[in-house]
Amino acid sequence: MRWLRFGAALAACLPALAWAQSADPHRWQLNMGKGVTPMAHNAYNTHMWGLWTCVVIGIIVFGAMFYAIFTFRKSKGAVAAKFSHNTKAEIIWTVIPVLILTGLTIPTIRNLIYVYDTSDSALTVRVTGYQWMWKYDYLGQNVEITSRLSKESNDIRQSGKDARDFNDPNYLLAVDHPIVLPVHTKIRFVVTADDVIHSWWVPAFGLKQDAIPGIVNEAWVNIEEPGVYRGQCAELCGKDHGFMPIVVKAVSMDEYKAWLAEQKAAKATPAG
Predict the structure, then answer these.
(1) What is the rounded distance in angstroms from the CA atom of residue 70 to the CA atom of residue 242?
(2) Quick one: 219 and 252 in the same domain?
(3) Burial class of residue 200, CB neighbours in 10 A (0-12, 13-18, 19+)
(4) Tens digit of pLDDT at every position of the chain (272 positions)
(5) Residue 200 near residue 246, CB atoms below 8 Å
(6) Is 98 in the same domain as 185?
């Protein structure tokens, strides 16, 4: 009975442990977040389907194993059966895994096809990785921005002191110029690099795309909620790899158009 109570308590805790986290990752996060794009939702749902499938399989397998261990132990006089094979059992334990894997494969393939469909995009942004910054070109808009680690984060890392003493929640995750994007809009990214391999990764978008010199990769997002979403370069690219964060500011279409107009006006104004 104690084992049953322990199992029931563990099963009761599993939903809480597997609950979706906030959009951006945080300390002690136990599960992936649902994100703020259809792509991220699909990845989360597929992950949860796989997770709960594994949980059910684990309960059945370990339940049967522990039941056999304690019920048919030698001290109770159990005698092991002697047989070479069982055709019916072999068919069952072959067919069931095939069905499970098929059930996991179909949504995965469907999601992969969906991920690479960049058609009907309303906006295209070229993302170029450099050591150690990102450049964003709004194609057709004559607007480009360069995004580097913020001065505040850079000052902290150069200070030689323990970064925890500064109590900066966005240390190494803040930039001087975030990329601004409209919500509820399909946005296409063309991703490349100028020097070495980088990787543009924003967890809340369910998106990680390699930036490779001489190669242009495509990706897309449709952000559902306004907010600030943070990411990082996810490919080791040199000594300052950890200091090229990504910050995306998602705003309404009206705010985006106003920001775009400001950028164009600033570019048209002669310096000095």
Answers:
(1) 51
(2) yes
(3) buried
(4) 454 454 444 444 444 444 444 567 777 888 888 899 999 999 999 999 999 999 999 999 999 999 999 988 888 888 887 877 889 989 998 999 999 999 999 989 999 999 999 999 999 999 999 999 999 999 999 999 999 999 999 999 998 888 888 888 899 999 999 999 999 999 999 999 999 999 999 999 999 999 999 999 999 999 999 999 999 999 999 999 999 999 999 999 999 999 999 999 988 776 55
(5) yes
(6) no
User: Which string of DSSP letters, residue by residue, matches 98-133?
Assistant: HHHHHHHHHHHHHHHHHHT--TT-SEEEEEEEETTE
Q: Which residues are bridge partners to 214 per DSSP?
A: none
pTM: 0.82
Amino acid type, 76: K
> SS3 of 195, please?
coil
Angle (nearest 5°) at CA 266 between 194 and 125: 40
Whether 35 maps to a domain, the answer reads yes
Residue type at position 177: H
Q: Tell me if 263 is assigned to some domain.
A: yes
Structural domain that includes position 261: 123-268
- Does residue 15 lie in a domain region? yes
Tokens coding 229: 């979403």
How far CA 256 is from CA of 134, 180, 184, 202, 263, in Å, comes to 20, 7, 12, 20, 11
| Inter-CA distances, 133 with 140, 148, 191, Å | 22, 5, 14
Q: At what angle do helices 2-17 and 38-71 cross, to 10 degrees?
A: 170
